Amino acid sequence: MFRSSLFNGMSIKLKYSPDNRLNLTKKYYDGHTENHPVLKRLVKHPSVVKLYPVYKLLRPQWESDTTNYTFPYSNSISQIFDAHSQLGITWKNILIGVLDSGIDYNHPALGGGFGRGYKIRYGANLVPEEEDEKYSVELRGDSDPYDPCTGNDAGHGTHVSGIIAGFDPEKVNTRPSYINLGIADGWSENAMAVVAERLARKGVIGVAGNQGVDGPFSLNTPGIAKNVISVASIESPYYPANAFSFNVFPNEQFPYTFSSSTLSFPNGTLVYAWVNNSVSFACHSDSEKLSFYFVKGKILFVKRGECQFLEKIKNAKSLGAIGLLFYDPDPSNHLVIVAKTDDDMFPCAGIAYNSAIRLINYIKNHRYESIQILSAEEEAILTTNLNMEISSFSSIGPTYELELKPTVAGIGGSVYSTMPLHINNGWAVKSGTSMASPQVSGTVALMLEYYRKMGRNVTFAYIAEQLQNQSKVLVDALGKPRHPLIQGAGLIQVIEALKEKIHVSPAHISFNDTSSSSNYKTATIHITNLSEETVYLSIKNIQSYSIQTCTMNAKLTSPTANNTTHMNIEFYPSEFITILPTSTGVMNASIVIPRLNQYMFPYEMYGGYISIRDYVSDKALTNVPYFGILGEMKDAPLFDEGYPYLASYRNTTKKLKQPFIFNLKEKQANMPVIVLRLLFGAVRLEVKVLGGDGKAIGYMSRGIWRYTPKNSLKAPKYIIPWNGIYISPLDEVRSVDMDEVLFGNKKEVKAENGTFYLLLRALKHFGNPEDKNDWEEWKSIAIVVQN
């Protein structure tokens, strides 16, 4: 039972586990629970507003690495050490709540204990005693948050807590509320999102991970709530890798990768054939040139290309080489290539383009100097000079309400932090947005303490905006900013957020889609000068690549970045503004929508940053991310190309072209199923049953669904089976009546002998359920029932 100003409700457990989404799951449906009498009674009770199923959730997903690395600390990225040393703030008297898998509070870096006087002061155990007993876990009571779990996937809450508040004299991490839980949903109507929003309004700052690989609209609940900080993940500049060292570059290490069949690589002397002012490809065409060099017993240095690796290896072996070292001469390829060498065990390894160019430039000036190569016995911790990359597991916005999310980004790839002491000696490297969001939580805690120390009473909205105002926009190799729907405002920078004297509100802008009212096309931006001096500012529009959501023929595609439609923003009254000390200036930014024939792709998501800069130095003082969608979402097709189609329960991959014979007399009848993939999320899906004359006679039993997420390229299809039962009489059921249809006392009818059709209807994005034009429909082939 839950009674609070946030939420009133109760959880119940039935003998069966009915779920109002069972029909529409990415797995088959077991229809034995749809008529539970308790649900029929509950939905009629005047005190019951809504019924929600209880979901079993997976643990927060992460990428595990149990090797006992010790990562260096990069203050230049997180700025946490500067916040401690320069500003004298240490997270004192700030309470952070972590909703996670528990904690090993005995860890020295986490205070070594639990309760009053310890760093971990409060806690709760939300796992029922019967669950602990099932796994032979020592019972510690409801108020003890200790994490007893073992195994490689355990310790999530301890790792997260270490990122927020862990401190060890030899290992430095970062230093209020942090919500570490996500359901891939994306709808703001989700109960968890509603509660998170209510918490935020009460001054509890929510920070949520944002993990998913399903493309646009794949954000997690509760991070989609308007006033919850949703965090994207970027890769750490530090990473473990196999490394070479060269005698000509002392005290440096260079990453390499084995070929697909190489297990180890020898130490030795590097040798090369000098061709066209570079090393050779070592193909058959280079054989004559290679014969002039003494290769035997040495490591041959070559370029990728011109021929297959097996040909290069064959030539190296014939000359007596003990190994092959190669690089990719394409300067745009920043990754170390893995050579496919089948089952040939000849040592072969690749190095990065930049590493190879350094070697080649050295060779040009020292042609007769011996170069020795030495392979490190253990993986080394290296740093990358590339622009920081968005993690592959970090999901893409926006929300289904077209709110710009994620909000900001934090380091989530390869994060070194605490683990339970019985796992990997209490320390490990983990990756996930669960690692990025606690860094933001720790940063917000520092900001709260700083403003209290300065005697300033600031709101949550101010802190969230200031955090966005001073985030570092991540760019690609060509200097183009990454899309805001991938990184939000960028990587958090706590020192700039606390010291900068410019504050901008709002801190991000959604221009919505092209059908939206003019209110969405112009944003009023307030720029406050917190300093004692007049500031002179210029405003620029810096556009990012657009994100392609689907192909021209309405087919799902990967979220490709396209340098396509250019978007202009007009600034009023001018792109220059002067703001007096402690004053606020107002500026309007209006998006200029191009003509329809200028769109390169349907429902393309444009984006960029309104850069507010110092007029004299042209230095960016703050950036305001924005995005919008080219096209009217109400017109966007919901059904993926080739879908829906009718199939049989026993073979959902075969599209039926002839009438389906549905023999209800069989004990385990082969049911007809609708196979569906959604391009975009659907507010409402419904399946009507039509008689042989094509007129609707009822709804398919449990044939209405709300807030259905879109499919992705990887996600399974939706399977909607029909068990031969429909609800009658047919009422035009509105959203307020849906629970009544799902669980209520409507009459259920078993189909008699005859011909039937299934009519699948999907309400379009922002569609009006009362307008027939706002529904997308599909009618099945005939289903012949034999009862």
Automatic annotation (TrEMBL):
Give the coiled coil ranges: none
- Species: Rhizopus delemar
- What family does the Swiss-Prot or TrEMBL record give for this protein? Belongs to the peptidase S8 family.
Q: Which domain of life is it from?
A: Eukaryota
Q: What is this protein called?
A: Peptidase S8/S53 domain-containing protein
Which residues of this protein are catalytic?
100, 156, 434
Q: Name one GO molecular function term.
A: serine-type endopeptidase activity
- Give the GO terms filed under biological process for this record: proteolysis
Q: Which residues form the PA domain?
A: 268-356
Per UniProt, the keywords (alphabetical) are:
Cell wall, Hydrolase, Protease, Secreted, Serine protease, Signal
Where would I find the Peptidase S8/S53 domain in this sequence?
A: 92-171, 204-462
